[in-house]
Amino acid sequence: MRVLIVGAGGREHALAWKCAASERVTEVIVAPGNAGTAAEARVRNADVAAEDIAALVALARAERIDLTLIGPEAPLVAGIVDAFAAAGLKCFGPRAAAARLEGSKAFSKEFLQRHRIPTARHATFTRATFDARYVMDHRTPIVVKASGLAAGKGVVIAASASEALAAVDAMFGGEFGAAGHEVVIEEFLAGEEVSFIVMADGQHALALATSQDHKRRDDADRGPNTGGMGAYSPAPLVTPILHARIMREVIEPALQGLAAQGTPYTGFLYAGLMIAPDGAPQVLEFNCRLGDPEAQPLLMRLQSDLTQLCAAALAGRLHEVEVKWDPRTALGVVMAAAGYPGRVRSGDAIDGLDTAARLPGKVFHGGTRLSGEPGRVVTSGGRVLCAVGMGDSVRAAPSSSTRPDFTLFSSSFLL
Ligand code: AMP
């Protein structure tokens, strides 16, 4: 079997590495991939951008691909699964109509409300319908969100009404382009955040192991919020009781609701949840794909064949499969380029990868590329590497992947 992975980050490196480990798989192609995917056995990069849907369809045809997995949200929201289906190609992910759960927060909030799935109270506005009294009439902090895709940057937690109004102004003013033409304003929820990710086949959901990402950049939970400085799995906060409650109150009604409106959901579905102090789960957002940091520890723990799980999902048979996990804890720690999450320099040389490869655990690449000189890897993005270790507890896991002789490792993520 031949597999295509679309994307270029750590999530896609982990997906490619996991698929290449399957006995059924002869070759994995990653478009466009990074220096890490280029170095994996039975994995090859193809120089096609993750957003170039027509070129990806052509690549899948030319390479006789049997199964495609999509990493990032942008091609899913733009309809890559529809394009692959129209070309008779198997692609695991939601069609554009279902990917709107992530692509439009306005759609997602209206959907949640209609299906009585717990979420923060909200209102959606365009510039023409905006009424500042809505902000004045509600308690602060209050949350202002650009409705469309804004690369994780379109959410402002405003401490005051004036801060909220400034955020609304900036969004309508084009700070996030078309993503800010509609704005969702919602109540601030207190509690603990968890990521809950399932595979869905249109009707059934198969929950993946629990996981939690770590958003703040610096030690001791300080510094700016990022796309994720790492993640661990399992997440002890999700007890079996809470797990059952999330399935019953969030995942099942969401899948049933989408199927009932004629847009069944197939693919990874990621619910970002706030668990209220009384234990009630509330949806902060849906993502239509795996989380980038979460995917890396999750796929390290996955013992089942991912290609078989995807094939079962595409056949609508997820309720018949069982998934096996390594019982140990996996912890992934990101090494980011200086300046992240702002502008970062690229092209810096990375040393120590050979030494790191001989250690237990696994170093997944994010923003890396081959420099052109043989064997030389350089940085090309904000989140450069993610070292994933396994251990009997979250405290034990980092030591297996973060020895001092791995010169690259930044020890900035300790729990
Ligand atoms: P979102 O992209 O909607 O998940 O928002 C990004 C982050 O903003 C979340 O991971 C939360 O940390 C925070 N957030 C979003 N909505 C709320 C809310 N209603 N109450 C509190 N925090 C929120």
What this model shows, in words?
- The protein has helices at residues 10-20, 35-39, 53-62, 73-77, 80-86, 96-103, 105-114, 132-136, 161-172, 240-260, 292-301, 306-314, 353-357, and strands at residues 2-7, 27-32, 43-45, 67-70, 91-92, 122-126, 142-146, 155-158, 182-187, 192-201, 205-207, 212-213, 216-218, 222-225, 230-233, 266-275, 281-287, 329-336, 349-350, 362-365, 368-370, 377-379, 383-391.
- It has 415 residues and is of the alpha+beta class.
- Helix 1 packs parallel to helix 11 and helix 6 (96-103) crosses helix 7.
- Strand 7 (142-146) and strand 8 (155-158) form a beta hairpin.
- The chain has a five-stranded parallel β-sheet.
- It binds adenosine monophosphate (AMP).
- Adenosine monophosphate is lined by residues 120, 143, 145, 155, 157, 186, 188-189, 193, 272, 284-285.
- Residues 120, 143, 145, 155, 157, 186, 188-189, 193, 272, 284-285 line the site of adenosine monophosphate.
The major sheet is characterized as: 5 strands, parallel
Ligands:
adenosine monophosphate
Rg over CA atoms, rounded to whole Å, is 21 Å
The secondary-structure class comes to alpha+beta
Number of helices: 13
The best one-word shape is globular
CA-CA gap between termini: 40 Å
Which ranges are low-confidence, i.e. pLDDT below 50, for 5 or more consecutive residues? 402-415
Helix content: 25-40%
Q: Which percent band covers the strand fraction?
A: 25-35%
Q: Estimate the mean pLDDT confidence.
A: 92
Count the strands? 23
Strand order of the largest sheet: 3-2-1-4-5
